[in-house]
Amino acid sequence: MSIAGKCYGNSFTSLAIAILIIFQINLCPVDADSMKMATFTSLKSVIANRRIDTDLVVEKMNYRKLNCMSDCLTDVNCESVGYHSNQKRCRLYRVLISGSDGVPENGWKYFSIREDFCPTENFTHNRIADVCYAISPERKPCGEAATICSSLSARLLVVDSQMKQDWARDLCVRQNIEGVHFDVYFEREGSALKLGSSGMDLTYTNWAIGQPDYGQPCIGMEAWHEWRWHDYVRSLEAGIICEIRRP
């Protein structure tokens, strides 16, 4: 073979390899470990054929469904995916989509991220806080709220860092929850906070001015306290966020 023929052959081989690499990248936008860690579940409780425009992270056009879900897995701000098969439109959302949102538009279906330690379709995983959580539509006193979470093999929300505080506050605001109970308690007046599920000390706090009162059995945060903490009587009703932490 001539030198020109060899060069042509090498160029053709290089081009073929380059095309193959690009093709593989497009087919596999996330690594295998990421796909093993999380999967998607259909949000059957969401009303299909509605276009939801709130809490968007990004919208992508002419996108495959697999790539849409893969992009959600690589974006820590993404909790739900909306996909329109006919239009090949991909939408990533920063919240678990609610069926009460959106406007009628045929073709949309919605999915949420599911981790292995999220036990039921009631829960979704947030990768910033690394917890599976479920929101109850009810407002209950703290004792009843704890029972509801326990029935789901979960516990009431625990805020143990500034990051978790910010995430919980933003979640409550987006979901129109005016206040939530915590799974914490005082062992005795003036003592450190204890986690209700384990009895371990909770070192992070974010008390409102003049709080705590001590002597009150329930602890949580509410909008009228600017999302800072306070303790209160058992009869006070508040929202319910149940959580399950990674084992």
UniProtKB/TrEMBL annotation:
SUPFAM superfamilies: C-type lectin-like
Signal peptide annotation: 1-32
Gene3D superfamilies reported for this sequence: Mannose-Binding Protein A, subunit A
Keyword hit for Signal: yes
Highest taxon of source: Eukaryota
Record keywords: Signal
Residue ranges of domain C-type lectin in the record: 128-243
InterPro entries: C-type_lectin-like, C-type_lectin-like/link_sf, CTDL_fold, Pan_app
Keyword Signal tagged: yes
Regions crossing the membrane: none
Protein's recorded name: C-type lectin domain-containing protein
Species in which this protein is naturally found: Mizuhopecten yessoensis (Japanese scallop)
